Amino acid sequence: MQFLITPRRNRGVALPMVPARRTTALRGELIITNRSCEHLNRHSNVASLWPMHGTAALLLPELYDASVSAMAREGFTLSGIEFDGERWYAQSWWCRAIE
């Protein structure tokens, strides 16, 4: 499904809350699958954000152990962990439907 995604953390540190109109959101196809994760050596719910057109690279690092941590009329928050190639960080994505 297509969503506007706003990451809520940078390297595990929470970003300040600002109104939706003042945030930079990424527009893309949100896909959540349960698959074997070689980094974790087990299965995990993995969220990924792909461009809506074409097969370019991911728009954000994948979110492992993804789960819905909050939901409201305006959207929902996916929380999990991301891997930057060296370290794991807590991450949350604020997800809003494209109107």
Overview of this protein structure:
The chain is mainly beta. The chain has one domain (2-97). 0% of the residues lie in helices and 61% in strands. The protein is built from no helices and eight strands. It has strands at 2-7, 9-10, 13-14, 26-37, 42-50, 63-72, 75-83, 88-97. The strands form two sheets. It has a six-stranded antiparallel barrel. It has a two-stranded antiparallel sheet with strand order 2-3. The radius of gyration is 13 Å and the shape is globular. The mean pLDDT is 90.
* Overall geometry: globular
Residue-averaged pLDDT: 90
Number of strands: 8
**Strand portion:** over 45%
Give, in spatial order, the strands making up the sheet with the most strands: 1-4-5-6-7-8
Give keywords.
two-stranded antiparallel ribbon; 8 strands; globular; six-stranded antiparallel barrel; mainly beta; 99 residues
Describe the structure in brief.
Helix content is 0%, strand content 61%.
Secondary structure elements and their pairing?
Layout: E1 2-7, E2 9-10, E3 13-14, E4 26-37, E5 42-50, E6 63-72, E7 75-83, E8 88-97
Antiparallel strand pairs: 1-4, 1-8, 2-3, 4-5, 5-6, 6-7, 7-8
